[in-house]
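Build the 3D complex.
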Amino acid sequence: MTTLHVISSSPFSDNRLSSCLRLLGHGDGLLLCGDGTYAAQPGTSHAEALRALGEGIALFALDEDLEARGLPSADWLQQIDYPGFVALAVRFDKVNSWL
Amino acid sequence: MSRSLLIISRQAPWSGPTARETLDIALAGGAFDLPIAMLFLDDGVLQLAPGQKPQNVQQKDLTANLQALPMFGVESLYACSLSLQQRGLTDTSLAVEHLDDAGLRDLISRYDQVITF
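Done.
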């Protein structure tokens, strides 16, 4: 079964993102929202780790959270809005929120 | 048939109420015969360290709650072997199955619902 992992905390203040990356399986998705979108900051080790994930993992970020933080869009990251968030929650078998 | 639930606990035992409350959720679910499994990940494995003396920091012992898991029907208990190894834990106060990254991916895939605290 596929899982959509949701991360909303900054990768610079805890290790949720790095642990999550180890657990991602083929067909899973990762959605960055809130301070989690800081992982998309260009030139950081987190952005590099995300880019290196490859084809089997779908990467998403909430558009408004990226924009609020002045983060640029990236070709390896699909930007979505809240209706898109809902659509993802339905598309994957389950959602794992890293609280 | 109830949907199966995997609870991932990744908080150290005495840094706040989260570790205890996560265990409470597992025990409550177990009491209602829900198919529940627990995975200890990251600092969550520190809950399993033997010989803790939480009364020294005015906390109640979590060990009793941990030992109660199998009695409440929560018998599928797992820990991340890398998290254990990184924190120097070779011995745990509760019998848990150690899983590598591939094992963790397979575990998460198997359960209907997953929640991480």
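Chain B is about 35% helix and 20% strand.
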